[in-house]
Design goal:
The protein is an alpha+beta fold and about 150 residues long. It has a single domain, classed as Nuclear Transport Factor 2, Chain: A. Helices cover about 25% and strands about 40% of the residues. Strands 1, 2, 3, 4, 5, 6, 7 and 8 form an eight-stranded mixed β-sheet that branches.
Length: about 150
């Protein structure tokens, strides 16, 4: 599955960290429905934060339809994911994970995306906000054929 974490997921974790781990697990498994079920109805995904090739207006992907479209545009086109979380800072209803997401793309290409991945959850533990801070140019500089 390609997930490496620096905390023990078997030990009770703050709700936002638990939701982040569930999110990574669903993405690595290619489980679109399971991933979408982790989000509150009014959630927003900003990946990356600001204008990008995935979100020209930089306003995020909102609600179930917007987040499902984000999956189809991005996650759904990746053959395999590996997540390495080097550090995780939970505070209140949020967690900021520092790490690298490696994506394996069609044609045998690989991209490493270093970033800070911030999740906020509601009282039920559903994700209300996922914000990924990473730089397109830095990620594209790592593209290589494997």
């Amino acid at each position: 599955m390609g997930i490496e974490v620096s905390w023990d997921p078997a030990v009770a974790q703050p709700p936002a960290r638990a939701a982040a781990f569930k999110s990574m697990t669903a993405v690595a498994a290619g489980d679109k429905d399971g991933w979408l079920a982790l989000f509150a109805p009014d959630a927003v995904v900003e990946d990356p934060v600001g204008p990008s090739m995935f979100d020209e207006a930089g306003k995020g992907h909102r609600g179930p339809d917007g987040i499902a479209a984000f999956w189809d545009l991005t996650i759904g086109n990746v053959e395999r994911f590996e997540f390495v979380i080097r550090d995780s800072h939970a505070a209140g209803a949020e967690v900021a994970n520092v790490g690298t997401i490696t994506t394996f793309l069609p044609g045998g290409y690989r991209v490493d995306t270093d970033g800070v991945f911030v999740y906020r959850v509601d009282e039920a533990g559903l994700i209300t906000s996922m914000r990924a801070f990473w730089e397109t140019e830095r990620a594209m500089a790592t593209v290589r054929q494997v």
